[in-house]
Amino acid sequence: MSFFSKSTFNKGIVVPSLLFIIGVCLLSIVFPTSTAGWLDRVKEFIFVNLNWVYVWAVTIFVLFLIYLVFSKFGNIRLGPNDSRPEYSFFSWISMLFAAGMGIGLMYFSVAEPMQHYSNEIFADNHYINRAKNAQLYTFFHWGIHAWAIYGVVGLALAYFAYRYRLPLSLRSCFYPLLKDKINGRWGNAIDVFALCSTFFGITTTLGFGVVQVNAGLQILNVVPETSFFYQVLIVGVLISLAILSATTGVDKGVRILSNVNVVGVIAFLLFVLFLGPTVYLIGSFTEGLGNYVNSFFDLTFSTHVYEERTLPWFYTWTILYWAWWISWSPYVGLFIARISRGRTIREFVAAVLILPTLFNFVWMSVFGNSAMWFDVNVADGALSTLVNNPDALMFRFLEYLPLSNVASFLVIAIIIIFFVTSADSGIFVMNSIATKNAVKSPKWQISFWGALLAILALMLLNAGGLQALQTMTLITALPFSLIMLLFCISLIKAMTIDRSYYERDFSVSTVPWSGEYWKDRLRQIVSFKTRTSVDEFIKTTVSSALSELRDEFAKNGIEAKINSFANPTRMEIEIHHDVVNNFIYGVRNQVKVISAYVIEEENLPEVDDKRTYYPRSYFGDAREGYDVQYFTRNELISDVLKHYERFLEIISEEKNELFISSNANKHLR
């Protein structure tokens, strides 16, 4: 009990998650062979009989996101209408890229194209066709389809967390379907699933990353062998760095490491591009991109049902990849959502689908096509013989380039940083799930997740149970693919209401300006206000209007209160509601910069300062406000009433329950 009282952990999430995680890991450690065998049979049944579920699910994700880019929903912002991105575009792309692919790019960039190229199902083809197929299927597995999986989860999380101010949790994505039930057992069950899936995915990936680092250090004669002792040392150092990075927060550790890694990755890419068969690589990338575009829909819908010879390969590669990306999507989606506040849906989807995909294509072309070219023209088939040893294949490939030792050390450095960024962002995400997105957690709690990752990964490596855990992760992808389809339904339902809500105009009973005070308004239009004059307007005209309105509300049995603030000066009237969101109408002192052309314009009054001030209205639901400096006291009262009339009309409609939830009362104005 004291453990939970000294932490921000949610007991309903952490206890069942730890029981399941430790239970599965112990089975994999104590009975690695039998556990792996049983899980393999379950996986084989799913991949053979239910592979169409993965194919259809991933296809729907791709088409759904493409639709959003070109639809009217693309302009919706992930947050209030006036929110803006927290991170620069470069930092944002760097972080989502490092979290999304990471170690896998280094592990498979040579290994996967070479394995397709050397696979016996393509053995009857000419070298050229085998190389084209290897590039095409590598593009397919690491392209738009993979990022669409991440994009759906990331978009759903960011939309419901920042648009509706719900917790940054998978349970929030079901709000349109489950409403307040997301705060009970249903919500806990969803978060338990996300936490276990995230832990398993990170553990297995980091385990394979450690093996590759160990293999590279042996080839470079830094360590004498690939043994468990050296793997313990590697994990100890890297997890310590990950915990240090995680405790400094996303804004520092993760962002800085991601930026450094992207620079290192680009430098390594250019190194291989210019010292390898450059002309061949540029030409093969161009042709491969065209081949991918032309084959896009054939690849998307293909189940290989008419090609029985290729079915085992299809299960082992394409279906396994879709399951792997889906199993990783809670982790990657949560992290992408965490760093994407303020982006529009169109910007989010376009960037997540296109930019990492293009980089992956360039990366896989440079390394995969270089390896195939060297295998035919230089190595005399030596690289093909290493396809079953992917841990060492990247380093053996680099031996055919100048400065191979330097390049190998650079590879290890990049893998290490990818390892740390994957681990620290994973630690952050797991702690976020376990605490229902607590604002701040003690550092020991963040360190706990890192230590658990290290201990269980090493125990699994030593016992040979890592493969069983990977299989368990792939099995969980089937139910989660169905959950993701529900995310799409929730998003469509919520965004339809969203558009309707913000496009709702005032009712026909609203009264426009009259011409009664036109002389005063002309004088106001051609003058520029100081901060003091606008403050005075708020303290007199606005205060008088809102006070009179509050008193009149009271006579009608409605309790309204006046809130006033300083820096900048603002005043608002608020009507509290327990079930629906509060009604708020306020006026704040807003500054704007005047164009130099206006300052020099002789046909306008003299302006001494480039800045002018004006009173701007604002509302509780973050709709766009407007300038009210020309309003009289009675016109301000009328303006408040027409917004209140609109508010009452909206909350009376059942379909708007999503927007009028009392959760909206929790946001900070």
TrEMBL record:
Keywords: Cell membrane, Membrane, Transmembrane, Transmembrane helix, Transport. It comes from the Bacteria. One of its GO terms (molecular function) is transmembrane transporter activity. One of its GO terms (cellular component) is plasma membrane. This is Choline/glycine/proline betaine transport protein. It is found in: Cell membrane. Belongs to the BCCT transporter (TC 2.A.15) family. Its main location: membrane. It comes from Sphingobacterium allocomposti. It is a multi-pass membrane protein. The chain crosses the membrane at residues 12-31, 51-70, 90-110, 139-162, 189-208, 228-250, 262-282, 314-336, 348-367, 406-434, 446-466, 472-492. NCBIfam families: bcct. Pfam families: BCCT.
